[in-house]
């Protein structure tokens, strides 16, 4: 079983999709070892406790620098013997030493088709506002390996949804979450835990099931 920590900052809808998929056996060979929050009042902690997952708070506001915060996260992951890290609405861009120690072992979900509408500052509703303002006809979500540069790591899974005439950012956000985001994140976690992912350069290869 792959010991997995889910990092959160907010409501935890992506965490809930992971919990639901895990409970229904859709995530193979995965132990949900910990949920770690950068905010003490994140509702995701309530979801984790309800599912019986141990929770930890590393409050970003308690650290004078991002480097200190990253070191604290690294030490917690190390103490829990975590193999896979999942970013599920985690609002801090991880840096050293976490990204070096967990190269190609940090999975993030982003609500667009990377490399469109992504990077520093592109999160939440802004992603969908930019997509609609640009006039794209499809958007979607991307599960990828995280690096020190926001939303720039190797792509694991992408799926698209239609941007409809008259869509609002909130309507597009809801459709992407329900039709794509909440499905491909658990799927990417399962692929990793099943040992079916390999990375060559920035290309992620997915092995067929045995």
Kindly describe this structure:
The chain has 210 residues and is an alpha/beta fold. The protein has helices at 13-23, 43-50, 66-79, 98-101, 125-134, 169-193, and strands at 2-8, 30-37, 55-57, 84-87, 106-110, 138-145, 155-162, 197-200, 203-206. Strands 3-2-1-4-5-6-7 form a seven-stranded mixed sheet, covered by helices on one side. Helix 1 packs across helix 6 and helix 5 packs across helix 6. It is globular, with a radius of gyration of 16 Å. 41% of the residues are buried.
Features:
7-stranded mixed β-sheet; alpha/beta; 210 residues; globular
Which helices and strands, and how do they pair?
Blueprint: E1 2-8, H1 13-23, E2 30-37, H2 43-50, E3 55-57, H3 66-79, E4 84-87, H4 98-101, E5 106-110, H5 125-134, E6 138-145, E7 155-162, H6 169-193, E8 197-200, E9 203-206
Parallel strand pairs: 1-2, 1-4, 2-3, 4-5
Antiparallel strand pairs: 5-6, 6-7, 8-9
Helix pairs in contact: 1-6, 5-6
Shape: globular
What structural class should be given to the helix and strand makeup?
Answer: alpha/beta
Question: Which value, in Å, is the CA radius of gyration?
Answer: 16 Å
| Tally of DSSP β-strands | 9
